[in-house]
User: What shape does this take?
Amino acid sequence: MPAKGKTTMKTRALPIFVVASCVAIAAGVVCADFKKGYYSPDPLGSIQQAAPAALPPDAGYEVSSYPVPTLELAPGDGRQDVQIYCNTCHSPRYITMQPPLPAATWEAEVIKMNKAYGAGIPEDTSRKIVAYLQAHFTPENRKP
Ligand code: HEC
Assistant: This one.
């Protein structure tokens, strides 16, 4: 009967396995190479960095003066005031960067710099600056 044959195989397999295991363990115990002492890792080697490449003799370089862009504002009354007062927070290029603006807008611009941004430019100088801007940067008189 196939069912009985299977049972016999199982019942034989266990003692064979147990005996084999015991033999293997005994052989391991007998043959193991026990050494008394302190186990430590191999001394670690050190990695050495390569020496930097020698610089070629002509590796020197020179620098010239830093290029500072200069802004040529149209000559006229008030130009110096613009260069002095409209230069503290930003470049006076902010003026030439704008499209031609109506006279009233330039006045409002100077008021804004004084009131909103705290430029603190004296009254009479502010008026001179407004006049200068109105004389050079409106759609009627703006030169490219
Ligand atoms: C106290 C600092 C300060 C001073 C001084 C100053 N500005 Fe300004 N200005 C600003 C600030 C802040 C802005 C806006 C910041 C930005 O957009 O980069 C600005 C922006 C501008 C702009 C761009 C348009 C706008 O309204 O944002 C113009 C044009 C300008 N300023 C003109 C002038 C003129 C003309 C003067 C001199 C009368 C002047 N500024 C002086 C602070 C100042």
Q: What stands out?
A: The two ends are 112 Å apart (CA to CA).
